[in-house]
C-alpha cells in the first residue's frame, strides 16, 4: 500500500507536533508495509514569511494531489500585529485550504482515556465514560460569510444553504451508525434563521436515515458538556459552535493537546488531519507541547485516506497504553517533553 502525504507544519508548536506525528507514522508504516512518502510545504505564517501569502499556489496544488494532508497549526501574535497593518492572516490560509479542498465534515473526537480522570477539571464520577464525537460543519457559516471590517461598525454574515446542512448531517448520521447510534444536533433555533433551517434539514435527513435525533440549544449544550458529558455520543453542529464546543469537550477529557481531527470531503477526495489546538505561542519552541493530538490525527489519516484500519488502531492502542503507563506531558500535570512523549508512544508500538 502507498501513502503520499503533504505535511504542513505551520507555526508555533505546529512543527514540533507534526514532527512527532511523522515519527509515529513512519514507524507504523514500516511495520505495516505501507510505502509512505511525505513532503513539507509552506503554510500559514511560515508561508507568509517565505512568500507573502498563507496558502501558496504550490502548497494548494500538492494538497489537492495528495492522499491526505497532515497539518500542525497556524497563527501567532506577530502575525496578528502585522494583520493590523494590512498583512494577510495565517488563519485565512487555513480557511482557504478548507474551502478549496471542500472539507465540509470535521470529525473531532474527545474521549476520556483510562487513567486520565485526574487531568479533567471535572469530578471523576461526572467525567467517567466520556466519549464524544463532534461533527462540525467546516466550510460554511460565519467563518465563510461576507465580512466588513470597521472601527465604528463591522459585519460578519452567517449564511447556510440546505445543501450544506444536508451533506454534513449525512456524515454525522453515518458516524452515529458506526457508534452507539445516539445523535444530538446543536443549534440556536430560538434566535437564528440559519439554525431553524439547520433543524429542519437535520430532522429530514434523520427521518430518511431512520435515526432519532435530539436537538439541544447551544447555550444549554455548553452547560451539559460540563455537567453530564458522558451522556453524549455524536454531536452535530455548525462551524462556529463546533469550534467552541470541541475545545470545551477536549478540556473535559483532559487537555486540548490530546484531541485530533479529520476534515473530510466527498469520497475519493483527500482529507486534512490536524490536532484541534492552535499554535500555542505561550509554549512554542520549548519542546513541551503535547504531541498526542497530532499523533492521533495521523491515525485518522491512515484510517480515512487509505483505509489502513490496523495501522490506525495500532497508533491509537499505543497512545492509550502509553497514557495508561503514566505518560503525562505538562498540560496533563506531568513533566514529559514532546520528545519523551513521542518515545513513550513509539515504545508501545
Ligand atoms: N487549526 C489551527 O491552526 C488553529 C490556530 N489557532 C491559532 O493559534 C494561535 C493561538 O491560539 P490560542 O487561542 O492560544 O489557542 P491554542 O490552542 O494555541 O492554545 C490554548 C492553550 O492551550 C495550550 N495548548 C494548545 N495546544 C497544546 C498542546 N499540544 N500541548 C500543550 N498545551 C497546548 C496552549 O499552551 C494554551 O495555553 C492563534 O493565532 C490562533 O488563531 C487557533 C486554533 C486552531
Ligand atoms: C484558526 C481558525 C480558522 C479555526 C479554529 O480555531 C479551528 O478550526 O479549530
Ligand atoms: Mg478552534
Automatic annotation (TrEMBL):
SUPFAM superfamilies xrefs: Isocitrate/Isopropylmalate dehydrogenase-like (SSF53659)
Catalytic reaction(s) noted: (2R,3S)-3-isopropylmalate + NAD(+) = 4-methyl-2-oxopentanoate + CO2 + NADH
PROSITE patterns assigned to the protein according to its UniProt record, in alphabetical order: IDH_IMDH (PS00470)
List of residues binding NAD(+): 278-290
Residues that hold Mg(2+) according to the record: 219, 243, 247
Chief location of this protein within or outside the cell: cytoplasm
UniProt superkingdom: Bacteria
Residues the entry annotates as binding substrate: 98, 108, 136, 219
Limits of the Isopropylmalate dehydrogenase-like domain: 4-345
UniProt keyword annotation of Magnesium present: yes
Cross-referenced InterPro entries: IsoCit/isopropylmalate_DH_CS, IsoPropMal-DH-like_dom, Isopropylmalate_DH
Residues of the site described as Important for catalysis: 143, 188
Keywords: Amino-acid biosynthesis, Branched-chain amino acid biosynthesis, Cytoplasm, Leucine biosynthesis, Magnesium, Manganese, Metal-binding, NAD, Oxidoreductase
Named cofactor requirement(s): Mn(2+); Mg(2+)
Signal peptide location: none
Keyword Manganese: yes
EC number: 1.1.1.85
Subcellular location field: Cytoplasm
Annotated cofactor note: Binds 1 Mg(2+) or Mn(2+) ion per subunit.
An individual GO BP term: L-leucine biosynthetic process
GO molecular function list: 3-isopropylmalate dehydrogenase activity; magnesium ion binding; NAD binding
Record function comment: Catalyzes the oxidation of 3-carboxy-2-hydroxy-4-methylpentanoate (3-isopropylmalate) to 3-carboxy-4-methyl-2-oxopentanoate. The product decarboxylates to 4-methyl-2 oxopentanoate.
Family membership noted in the UniProt record: Belongs to the isocitrate and isopropylmalate dehydrogenases family. LeuB type 1 subfamily.
Subunit and interaction comment: Homodimer.
Protein name: 3-isopropylmalate dehydrogenase
Protein source organism: Parvularcula maris
